[in-house]
Amino acid sequence: MSTFAKQSFDAIGYALSRPAYPPKIYQHILSIASIPSSSTTSTSTSGKDSSSVLVDLGCGPGLSTFAFVPHFDRVLGLDPSKNMVHHATEILKGKDASTQDKLRFAQGKGEDLSQAVLGLEDRSIDLVVAGQAAHWFDAQAVYSQLTRVLKPGGSFVFFGYGEMFFPQPSAPELNQLVPEYSGNLLKDYWQQPGRGIAESLLSQYAFPSRDSDKKWDTSSFRRDYFLRASSDSSPAVPTNPEDPPQVQVEKHDLILERVWSLEELEAYLRTWSSAHTYDEKHGPGSDVVKSFVEKLTTTGYGKGRADGKERIGWGMGMISGRLGAE
Question: Where is the Methyltransferase type domain (predicted)?
Answer without folding.
Answer: 55-158
